[in-house]
Amino acid sequence: MNRIGERRTPELKMLIVDDRKENLIAMQRILQSLECELFVASSGNEALSLTLRHDFALILLDVHMPEMDGFELAEILRSNEETKQIPIIFVTASNKEEQSVFKGYESGAVDYLFKPVNPDILLSKVRVFLELNMRKKELECIQSELERSNESLKEFAQVVSHDLRNPLNVISGLSELLLVRHSAGLNEKGKAYVSQIAETAGRMTALIADLLSYAQVNAKAAVVSEADLDEIVRLVVADLSATLEQCGGEVQVLDKLPVIAADSTQMYQLFQNLIGNGIKYHRPDCAPIVRISLQAPADVPEERSGVSVAIRIEDNGIGMKDDDIPHIFSAFRRLDNARGYEGTGLGLATVQKIVETHRGTLAVSSTLGQGTAFVITLPAEWSQDNAS
Ligand SMILES: Nc1ncnc2c1ncn2[C@@H]1O[C@H](COP(=O)(O)OP(=O)(O)OP(=O)(O)O)[C@@H](O)[C@H]1O
Ligand SMILES: [Mg+2]
C-alpha cells in the first residue's frame, strides 16, 4: 500500500501537437531528458483523441495548423470537464495579433513560446508546469489518503465502542450483583475490591464515551439547522441536575439565548462540557454557580460583530494560572488543578473542535482561586437565508 510519507512520484505524461513532423522530432529531442512520457499528435483531431485516453500534465501546442488550429483545439479542451484543467503552452510566431488572442486564455494555466524555440526556455517552462502538476497530484493523493484514514478511524471508533462497551457492561453488572446479592459472603476487603472494580469500569465507560464523541466531532461534518440554544442549555442543565443536587450547585441563565444556525448535537456537547467543567471544578468550600449570559455587542470582536453571537459561561470555581490556559484545549491534557477531580481531558478539545467547525472563536480568562470565564462566538442568529 502507498502510505503518506512514502509517496511514489506520479507518472507524468505530456503531449506535443504540431502538424510538421520535423518540429515534433525537434521538440522530442529537446524534451527527452525530462522524466516524462512524451506523446505526439500531428493534428487537432489526433490530439483530442489522445486527451480522451490519457491524463496529460501539459500540452505543447502549435498555433498554426491546417483544419483545426491551436486556439480552436484549446477552446474544445477548455469546454470539456475532463480536459479543461490541462495546462497549455502555445507555440507560435511572435506577432502582436496572436498575443492579444492569448489574453483570452488568462483564466486557465497557459503560457506561450515564440518561434524559433529556444531549447533552454522550452525546457525551463515545461519543467515548471510538470513540477506544478506533480505537486497537484501529490496533494490529491494525500487528500484521498486522508479521507480513507478518516473513514477507517470512524469504523475503528465504532468497533471499539461496541466491543469494549459490552464486556465493560458485564463487569459493571456482575460487580453490582456481587455487592447487592452476595455481599454476605464477602469480608470488608472483598467488598472494597468489588466496589473498586465497579468504579474503574464506570470510569472506563466514561472514557470510551468521551473518546467516541471526540472522534465523531473530528470525523463527521456538522449538520447545520436551527439550533435553539436556550432549549439546548435547559436540556444540559436538566441532565446535570443530579450532579448539581449533590454539590448544591446552580446554573443561572441570565439572558434568553438565541436560535442560531448550528449543529444541535454539537451545541449540546459544547454546553455540557463547559457547564460540566464549571460545576466540577468548584472550590471545596464554595457551592458552584455557573452563569450564562450574552456578551454585549460592544465586547464582540469587531470583525465578528453582526455575524456572530457571543456567549459567556462563567464559574466561581478553582480557576487556573494564566500560563496553563493555552494547554487546556489539547486532548488528554489535564492541569495540576484537576488532581482529585474525575475526567479524561477530552472535554475542551471537543469544545474547541466544535467551535472551529462552526467558524467561531473561543476565549478564556481565569483567576486562580476565584473562577473562570469562557466566551464563545458562534454563527449569527438563524434567518431565512440560512435555510436556502
Ligand atoms: N472551569 C474550569 N475551571 C478550572 N479548571 C478548568 C476548567 N475547565 C477546564 N479546566 C482545566 O482544564 C483541563 C482540561 O479540561 P477538559 O474539560 O478538557 O478535561 P477534563 O474536565 O479534565 O475531563 P473531561 O474529558 O471529562 O472533560 C481540566 O483538566 C482542568 O485542569
Ligand atoms: Mg471537562
Descriptive report:
- There is one protein chain.
- The chain has helices at 21-31, 44-53, 70-79, 96-103, 119-181, 188-219, 229-239, 241-247, 264-280, 347-357, 384-387; strands spanning 13-17, 37-41, 58-62, 88-93, 110-115, 225-228, 250-253, 259-262, 289-294, 308-315, 361-367, 371-379.
- The strands form three sheets. It has a five-stranded parallel sheet, sandwiched between helices.
- The model is unreliable at 1-9 (pLDDT under 50).
- The chain is elongated, with a radius of gyration of 32 Å.
- The relative contact order is 0.07.
- The protein folds into three domains: 13-117, Response regulator (Rossmann fold, 3-Layer(aba) Sandwich); 147-220; 222-387, 2-Layer Sandwich (Heat Shock Protein 90), CATH 3.30.565.
- By secondary structure, it is of the alpha/beta class.
- The chain is 47% helix and 18% strand.
- The protein starts with 12 loop residues before the first strand and ends with a helix.
- The chain binds adenosine-5'-triphosphate and magnesium ion.
- Adenosine-5'-triphosphate binds next to helix 9 and helix 10.
- Adenosine-5'-triphosphate (ATP) binds next to helix 9 and helix 10.
- Residues 159-382 form the Histidine kinase domain.
- This is histidine kinase.
